[in-house]
Amino acid sequence: MYQYRMAVCEDDETVREGICGFCDRILTEEQIPHQIAAFSSAEELEACLAENRGSDEPAFHLLILDILMGEKTGMELAMELREEDDATGIIFITGCEEYMGMGYDVQAIQFLVKPLNWEKLKKALLNDWRKKGRQDLLLIKKGRQSLQLPLSEILYAEADGNHGIRIILKEGEEGFPVSLSELEEMASGGPLIRCHNSYLVNMNQVRRLDRQNFILQNGKKIPISRKYLKVCQEKLVSSINR
C-alpha cells in the first residue's frame, strides 16, 4: 500500500508540534496511510536526506520547511535539494513575507506566513498527496465511506445492477456504493477507462483488443461497446507506446 511520507522542519517546538498534529489529523481523516517525521533544524533534516540518497524510494514526498532556522535556513536546504531532486514537494512557512519571491526558484508548492492559515495548509497537503498518490493508489469516497486500492491490483470495474460497483482485483473483489460514472470521474487521468456502459478497464492489465473485447493479461474478456471502440483503440496504442 502506498504510504505518504512527509517531514516538518521547524525550530519552534510549539509550531512544529502543531503542524505535525494538524497534518496527522487531516491525513487520518482522509484515511491516507502516512508517516510524519519532525526535525528541529535544517542540519538534522539534511542528514536524514543524505542517508537516503541513492535509494529507489524518496525519503519524503513532502517537506514543510521554516525559512529562518539557526545556522542553515530552510531556503538554503531547498536550493541544495533542488540540485538533485525536483520531485519532492516543498511548503515554506515563515514570519517574513519578504522571502516569498525566493520560493519560485525552488518550485515551492505553497508559501505560508505565520500565523498559519490552516485551510491553506490542508489544501496544499491534500493536493500534493493526490498528485503523488494517484500514481499508485485509487481512493474512492462517498460521504464518510472510503476505499483505497493499489491500481496495480485492479483488473476492471463493473456496475453491480444495484446502484453500486464491483471492482475485480487480481485476488478477490471489492464492492462500493458509487455509480460507474462516479468512479470514472474519481479515476480520471489514470489507467481506468470506460469501454462499455457497464465496465471500466485497467489499461495496464490489457494484453490486446479484438473487435468486441479487451483481452486481459489473465485471459479474461471485457466487452467493448461500439460507442467506446475508437477511444479504446487510441488508448491501447497510447499505452503500448508509453
UniProtKB/TrEMBL annotation:
PROSITE patterns: HTH_LYTTR, RESPONSE_REGULATORY. Gene3D superfamilies: 3.40.50.2300, LytTr DNA-binding domain. Residues 5-129 form the Response regulatory domain. The modification 4-aspartylphosphate is found at D66. Residues 138-238 form the HTH LytTR-type domain. May play the central regulatory role in sporulation. It may be an element of the effector pathway responsible for the activation of sporulation genes in response to nutritional stress. Spo0A may act in concert with spo0H (a sigma factor) to control the expression of some genes that are critical to the sporulation process. This is Stage 0 sporulation protein A homolog. It comes from Candidatus Merdiplasma excrementigallinarum.
